[in-house]
Amino acid sequence: MATQEQIHAARRTIERLRDQHANDVRKLIGLLESGAMKGKAADKLIEDCQGWQAAYNSVFNRALALIDATPVNAESGAPTPDPIAGLRPHTPWMPS
To answer: Where is this region: Disordered (predicted)?
Structure first.
């Protein structure tokens, strides 16, 4: 299990990488569209870049979803909720 601090750090890293990647791909597409490369090869490369962007967005979204689903270590001060706590009565067992 991870601490809340580790989870937040992982989220920030993934978000930073996602934003950096998106900026890099947008710059490359912009460069190609401005005429740095012409013809069918340029059109194909633009299409590939757009495909990469979509694929990486999916990867980053899945990574963020996994981070959101990561349980928090109870020792970090933020207890992990008990999903069945409300389903069972809280009556201590007493020996007879």
So the answer is: 73-96
Element (H, E) at 63: helix 40-68
Write the CB contacts of 63 (distance below 8 Å, at least 6 apart in sequence).
14
Query: What residue type is 36 in one-letter code?
Result: A
Exposure on the CB side of residue 53, measured as CA atoms within 13 A:
16
Question: So where are the chain's domains?
Answer: 4-71
C-alpha span between 21 and 85 (Å, rounded) = 42
Q: How far apart are the first and last CA of the chain?
A: 39
Tell if the pTM clears 0.70, that is, is over it.
no
Tell the CATH topology of 4-71: Helix Hairpins (1.10.287)
